[in-house]
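Late entry, evening session. Most of the bench is empty. Finally got around to the prediction I had been postponing all week. Sequence below, unchanged from the version circulated by S.P.
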Amino acid sequence: MILRSRCVMPKWFRTRPPARSNRWLLGGYAGLLGFFTLEGFLRQPGRAASLKPSKDDRGTTRLIIAAYAIASDLPLVARRLPSGHLPPAVAPAGLAVELSGLALRAVSMRKLGRFYTRTRTTDEDEQGLIETGPYRLVRHPGYLGSWLTWIGFALTSRSVPAVALVTGLLGVAYARRISAEEQLLRRDVSGYWEYAQQTRKLIPLIW
């Protein structure tokens, strides 16, 4: 007698997402449009908006731009792979995460004002230490907000590979960015070393 076994997969684990899930992904792309619009409206003109880096940038601006370009296309590709999809409730939850990330980034940008630059550069005027708002909890809340925005965007696709790849890709990019920025701030900002001993870099209570 030959016994045949069949692996029964959960209903939500599909090789292709249903057509109705596309609306959540469209919402995710609308969130990304808001992300880049936020960059244009809240970042002050001049050095804060410049893409010309100094040696302190260590190539991290180019890395982040490349990561954005790749991450924006990943859900369209990954959600077609035969590797399953997350439950339907994940998509609206992802949009909520994306909006939360946008809000955190907006607050962080407004707190830093002209010192919130696109590239890592030194300033002729000494940058003051900011310890209020989200900076009471983590030293780089703007990057945390950006990371949450991209993770939420990936979640709207309900694609397991997309979520994993986008989270990892942007995580590596921001980790390198933070490493370069920490060296600059410890060198040029008075009191930053002491502030760093009392706070986490990116994730409260963890890292």
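Two things to note before I forget:
Residues 20-42+56-116+130-198 form a domain with the Four Helix Bundle (Hemerythrin (Met), subunit A) fold (CATH 1.20.120.1630).
The chain has one domain: 20-42+56-116+130-198.
Will write this up properly tomorrow.
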